[in-house]
Amino acid sequence: MPYDTPRRLFLLQTAGLMLALAGCGPKAEPAASRFKNLHGMDFSDQDVRRDFALTDPQGRTRTLTDYRGKVVMVFFGFTQCPDVCPTALYRATQIRKALGKDGEQLQVIFITVDPERDTPEVLDKYVAAFDPGFVALYGTPEQTAATARNFNVFYQKVPTGSSYTMDHTALSFVFDRHGKLQLALQHSQSVDECVDDLRQVFALA
After folding, report:
1. Which of 43, 67, 152, 180, CA to CA, is 20 to 30 A from 202?
2. Residue 155 contacts by C-beta under 8 Å, 6 or more apart in sequence?
3. Are 9 and 179 in contact (CB under 8 A)?
4. Please, what is the Cα angle at 100 between 99 and 104, to 5 degrees?
5. Is the whole-model pTM more than 0.90?
6. Residues 6 or more apart from 73 whose CB is under 8 A from it?
7. Residue 28 and residue 167: Cα distance in Å, rounded?
8. Residue 17 confidence (pLDDT) above 60
9. HEC profile for the chain?
10. Which cysteines are joined by disulfide bonds (predicted)?
11. How many angstroms separate the CA atoms of 186 and 139, rounded?
12. 194 annotated as ligand-binding
């Protein structure tokens, strides 16, 4: 079976569904949800702390605490991704524009699941091509695996001829200004749907 985009998206969507069914994702009907008519996935009722301690291309260790005061959107991917990752990052640029003034307070963070190939130089150029304000982070294979587990993110290497690609969860995790995970935007959401969800996060105290 050829490794095409429809199959990849099916795998990513199935992985997200498996996490939810396993109790790693949001409940189907979360108690006392803060949100109304949400397009994405509600994580606001979860008490598990999601965080990272990874390195940016300038060699600085970054954690969520560094971005307190901003709404943070975290996406896991890799620079050689042919479709899902560039689509998600381009959508993020459009979301920032559509948010208007609030867009200046949205910090987009790209965490690589392919540290073997995604060097600091490669990551820096990659995210800057979308928006110079985006932040790219990487870690050792062990740090990457630990961070993915903390976020319940699935990823795996898939051989393709003499090289490989990566399957990975295609969600954008959104944290409020206090560093608490509130929701996840799904890959299928439009810019307007993402903006509707994000405005609710910006409205939180």
Report:
1. 152
2. 76, 113, 148, 166, 167, 168, 169
3. no
4. 90
5. no
6. 92, 106, 107, 108, 109, 172, 173, 174, 175, 185, 198
7. 25
8. no
9. CCCCHHHHHHHHHHHHHHHHHCCCCCCCCCCCCCCCCCCCEECCCCCCCCCCCEECCCCCEECHHHHCCCEEEEEEECCCCCCHHHHHHHHHHHHHHHCHHHHHHEEEEEEECCCCCCCHHHHHHHHHCCCCCCEEEECCHHHHHHHHHHHCCCEEEEEECCEEEEEECCEEEEECCCCCEEEEEECCCCHHHHHHHHHHHHCCC
10. 81-85
11. 25
12. no
Multiple choice CATH, 5-202, 3.40.50.12780, 3.40.50.720, 3.30.1330.30, 3.40.30.10: 3.40.30.10
77-110 pLDDT, tens digit per residue, is: 999 999 999 999 999 999 999 999 999 999 999 9
> ∠ CA(72), CA(77), CA(83), 5° rounding?
115
Tokens of 26: 């949001």
Q: Say if residues 195 and 98 touch (Cβ distance below 8 Å).
A: yes
Contact 160, 147 (CB under 8 A): no
